[in-house]
Write a structure and sequence with these properties.
Elements (H helix, E strand, L loop, with lengths): L8 E2 L2 E3 L2 E5 L12 E8 L5 E6 L5 E7 L5 E6 L4 E6 L10 E3 L4 H11 L6 H24 L4 H16 L15 E6 L5 H12 L6 E7 L14 E5 L5 H11 L5 E4 L5 E2 L3 H11 L5 E9 L5 E5 L6 H4 L9 E4 H7 L9 H10 L7 E12 L8 H15 L3 E3 L6 E3 L10 E7 L3 H14 L5 E7 L5 H13 L3 E5 L6 H11 L4 E5 L3 E3 L4 H9 L4 E9 L5 E3 L2 E3 L6 E3 L19 E2 L7 E5 H7 L12 H11 L3 E12 L15 H14 L39
Helix pairs in contact: 9-10, 11-12
């Protein structure tokens, strides 16, 4: 992707002798946030790594820049220099590092001063407007898909917070739900933070709670906050995990227990929110809330909005966050194991949820806790390793730790014997597209237990038929079916499924390029997990930006939208969700693996209602409705040469049938009012980049992951 005709502001080298070290962009005046939203670019001809260094020379942040790419970054105000390194092993050649002004008027002035606009005045003006429109869109995408997204969205979250945090007015009667018991360990918590937590508890609108606080020697008699309903529990040492275990032991079986990090503060309505949930849903076994992150100086950082229950996301990180409510009897019977130290609460959560049905797990899409935190996941590598050990014990498989973000990656094994995958590829001419798909499929894929079923829909070109013959030689387990009817993607796929012999069915577009050996094995291992019905892959455009990382129902307009389209391939996305496995409501049919028994339970693609559009999403939602899981994995990546053979949906004169099918899907699944359980009501519905909304966009009632 080429840089804009509007040039960046090139950064100044730190010295004439070092052409790879640059002074940071000047930070804007004002603002309490210690970070500044920045968009960088480079004119290097190869990918480069940007290292952000402080005055002591410590690398505090890294960023990969590809040729022609814009990349967002939350740049610390105290940055001393930006250093370019080659993304490989060699040092890069001469290269510059630049940035763009982000204010609307500042960008316009910069474009007028530094852009080169040829031709007559009307042509120059038209070119300027077009370049500005394109550049603004790219700058927004770079910000929204980066670590700077929270800074870009902070004004909206401030508006949201002013009206919609601490606003739950209901106070359940004492007899409506069990009393709540907060469980905390004072060890390691600064006295000021402990006092602030006590004040937050004293301000609760619902008085039906107590605070069980484990106090190490010397503190038991010295900490007695007024009105905090304190139950002190003396403990023999200052180990926080042992303190939390002692607090749990002191709770009652008939209480709702909430492990509470006393370094943060619950909102004034936290007790009322939790007790109201258990009052309305007597079958509730666990409830968790949204939260917000603060900077160390107390400045607001971001709202952390969670999805509804998400099994695979929980196996990657402790996404439920800081405020999780459990039934006392079950939690106390299991106990907290101090040997897992900072990961002991996560270990308890895994054991607690073993055997609990998803319908008994409720997400409360309301902010109920504030703490100093920067990102999701585990705080550090040692904690992540302990969490990995706990997860490995539950799953019985090895669990790796992502060294950069401290996420967990369970490594599931392919069953023996390896299940046969029937790969269904509908096609019509365009032999060069199909040839690339077939050749890379056979040459690159490490998983070899597959058959190929090509469903030809009226090809006419000699090159296509020659390719069909070559395909049988390339992979003998290849069959060619013929369907000369009008284009109906659902019918073509169903025809292939009817002749398939595999336990697993892979729907694959004819414009794919396989680039990683492990993609199919990754999808197969997930599909073979109990409860999983459908698995989707991460698809990239030829420029290596994201084409598909999951589908969010009801996003933007019509059926919904792929989220984070055109993000960088390795962009973390909101709460790191583009780089971890997770449950979703739907994935694209361009590369969709489905179990045969799932298809038998929910039916094939709908040939009548959704011949061209939304058939894959409809299948996923029917699977979810029947209780099957839909899983997205970023560890199966393919290149999708999308729209190589047809126009986009939004072009004037687009296929009326496809537009009608979208409307039909929206009516069937009520997408105008449905909040996708794996996003939430506190995001803007008109944007695919998980932007925080200034006001709720849907119901904030406690919810499960069910599609109803």
């Amino acid at each position: 992707m080429a840089l804009s005709p509007i040039p960046p502001i090139w950064l100044t080298p730190t010295s004439a002798q070092d052409s790879r070290s640059f002074l940071p962009p000047p930070a804007p005046r004002g603002g309490r946030e210690p970070d500044v939203a920045t968009v960088l670019c480079s004119d290097a001809e190869m990918p480069v790594t940007v290292e952000v260094e402080d005055a002591a020379g410590h690398v505090v942040e890294t960023l990969v820049l590809r040729p022609g790419e814009l990349a967002g970054l939350a740049l610390p105000r105290d940055t001393a220099r930006l250093v370019l390194r080659d993304a490989g092993e060699a040092e890069p050649g001469p290269a510059r590092l630049g940035h763009y002004p982000l204010g609307r008027w500042a960008l316009l002035v910069h474009a007028l001063r530094h852009g080169a606009w040829a031709g007559a005045a009307p042509a120059r003006q038209k070119a300027l407007k077009r370049a500005l429109r394109t550049l603004r869109r790219r700058l927004k995408q770079a910000l929204w898909t980066s670590s700077a997204a929270s800074l870009a969205g902070l004004p909206d979250y401030r508006r949201f917070r002013a009206r919609h945090v601490g606003d739950f007015a209901e106070v359940p009667p004492a007899e409506a739900a069990p009393r709540l018991a907060f469980l905390s360990a004072a060890a390691g918590v600064a006295p000021g933070a402990l006092a602030a937590c006590a004040r937050a508890l004293d301000a609760q609108t619902d008085p039906n709670f107590r605070w069980i606080l484990a106090l190490p020697p010397g503190e038991a008699a010295g900490f007695a906050p007024p009105g905090a309903r304190l139950t002190p529990v003396p403990v023999p040492d200052a180990d926080p995990a042992r303190g939390l275990a002692a607090a749990l032991e002191a709770a009652g079986d008939d209480e709702i227990v909430v492990p509470l990090d006393a370094a943060g503060m619950p909102t004034r309505d936290a007790v009322a929110l939790v007790r109201a949930t258990f009052a309305r849903h007597p079958d509730c076994a666990l409830a968790y809330t949204d939260e917000e992150y603060l900077y160390p100086d107390g400045a607001l950082r971001d709202g952390a909005f969670k999805p509804a229950y998400n099994r695979h996301l929980l196996e990657a990180m402790d996404y439920m966050g800081a405020l999780v409510a459990l039934r006392g009897a079950r939690a106390r019977a299991l106990g907290l194991r101090p040997a897992f130290s900072a990961a002991a609460r996560y270990d308890l959560l895994l054991r607690y949820l073993d055997g609990v049905p998803p319908a008994a797990i409720r997400h409360l899409p309301r902010v109920a806790y504030s703490s100093v935190r920067a990102s999701p996941g585990f705080a550090d590598a040692p904690t992540a390793r302990l969490a990995a050990a706990a997860l490995a014990e539950r799953l019985g498989v090895p669990v790796e730790v992502d060294p950069l973000r401290h996420h967990l990656i369970p490594r599931f094994e392919v069953p023996a014997p390896a299940p046969l995958v029937s790969i269904i590829i509908p096609t019509r001419d365009r032999a060069e597209l199909l040839a690339r798909t077939l050749e890379t499929l056979v040459a690159v894929s490490a998983y070899r237990a597959f058959e190929i079923i090509i469903v030809d829909n009226g090809s006419r070109e000699d090159e296509t038929f020659a390719l069909f013959e070559r395909a049988r030689t390339l992979w003998p387990a290849t069959r060619i079916l013929t369907d000369d009817g009008d284009f109906n993607f659902s019918r073509l796929c169903n025809a292939g499924i009817a002749t398939a012999t595999g336990e697993l069915i892979l729907l694959l577009n004819n414009d794919m390029e396989i680039v990683e050996p492990g993609w199919l094995g990754e999808m197969v291992t997930l599909a073979c997990r109990p409860g999983v019905g459908i698995v989707g892959a991460k698809l990239l455009y030829p420029d290596r930006s994201v084409q598909h990382a999951g589908f969010i129902v009801g996003l933007r307009s019509g059926a919904g939208s792929h989220w984070f389209a055109h993000a960088a391939a390795d962009a973390p996305g909101y709460q790191d969700r583009l780089v971890v496995r997770q449950n979703l409501s739907a994935v694209t049919g361009a590369c969709l693996l489905v179990r045969r028994d799932c298809l038998e339970a929910v039916g094939l693609l709908d040939e009548e209602a959704f011949a061209e559009e939304c058939n894959d999403i409809d299948l996923c939602l029917r699977a979810r409705q029947a209780g099957w899981e839909v899983v997205f994995t970023p560890f199966a990546r393919l290149i999708h040469h999308e729209s190589a053979s047809r126009g986009t949906d939004t072009e004037p004169g687009a296929n009326p049938r496809r537009l009608a099918e979208r409307e039909r899907f929206a009516a069937k699944w009520a997408t105008d009012t449905r909040t996708d359980p794996h996003l939430g009501p506190n995001f803007r519905r008109d944007n695919e980049y998980a932007l925080r909304a200034p006001a709720p966009q849907g119901s904030r009632a406690p919810r499960t992951d069910a599609i109803e």
